[in-house]
Specification:
single chain, mainly alpha, 266 residues
């Protein structure tokens, strides 16, 4: 794909995200932050493509025996400075909580991007077409596509999860009719209270079960002790009888042996 065509497509995609941000409404701060994050990702990748591939090609093509042409050098320098400003605003937004300040700063960032896009498409891109041939623009575009493809691989799964989160957020907002951060906090607090009550009920029920089991086990323990004592007593009685039987048996054997000896003598 031609490099200029690819960059223009990026411009349109970012402009669409800016419109979505505005259409989200004043209260949907969480949803607007999610849209903003998509815009940040798109702008950061777009900036990388321009600064690493597009601008260096313009600077190289604009050189003559006296160095870079003044026109090409000026336009690229201005473009890089505009990138620096947008990067600073994105960094500031990433550290700002959703709310009025976030929305205002995002609007300033969007206006800077729109100004940058207007200058690129009306001034820098026509100059680039003069400096670079169609074949070179196709080659640069191919490199840009490869970078974009590589950059999208790790984020494919996270994008799917993000879409699911966005859908859940919109469904909850539509059901409750209130999408402010305070409303989300109230709902989270209610869930927390319900969870705590459930845990408390479960703990009380567990204590009751343990108490009942302990009470039910008392007769069993007593019966077991009685049975053990009975067995021990019987064992002692049997042992006593056995010890009495042994001497009697020995005497009987002795008498029998004596009688047999006497009979043999006669």
């Amino acid at each position: 794909m031609n490099a200029i065509t690819l960059l223009k497509q990026d411009h349109l995609a970012v402009a669409k995200l800016f419109r979505e941000f505005e259409a989200a409404g004043d209260g949907a701060h969480k949803h607007k932050q999610q849209i903003a994050q998509k815009a940040f990702d798109a702008l950061e990748l777009h900036t990388r493509l321009e600064e690493e591939l597009f601008y260096p090609a313009i600077e190289t093509a604009g050189k003559d025996e006296h160095g870079p042409s003044a026109e090409a050098e000026r336009m690229v320098a201005e473009a890089r400075e505009e990138h620096r400003v947008v990067k600073a605003l994105i960094s500031q937004l990433k550290g700002t909580a959703p709310g009025v300040e976030f929305d205002a700063t995002f609007k300033v960032m969007a206006e800077n991007v729109e100004h940058h896009v207007e200058e690129e498409e009306s001034e820098l891109f026509p100059l680039t077409q003069k400096l670079l041939g169609a074949a070179e623009l196709e080659e640069i575009g191919g490199k840009m596509e490869a970078v974009k493809k590589e950059s999208s691989k790790p984020s494919l799964m996270s994008e799917t999860f993000q879409q699911a989160k966005d859908l859940v957020t919109r469904v909850v907002d539509s059901m409750t009719g209130d999408s402010t951060p305070k409303a989300h906090a109230r709902r989270a607090s209610k869930v927390h209270v319900k969870t705590a009550r459930t845990h408390s009920k479960a703990a009380n029920a567990g204590k009751k079960v343990v108490a009942k089991a302990s009470k039910a086990a008392r007769p069993v323990k007593a019966a077991a002790k009685h049975a053990v004592r009975s067995v021990v007593a019987k064992t002692k009685s049997v042992a006593k009888k056995a010890s009495a039987v042994k001497p009697a048996a020995r005497r009987k054997v002795a008498r029998t042996a004596t009688r047999r000896t006497s009979a043999a003598a006669y």
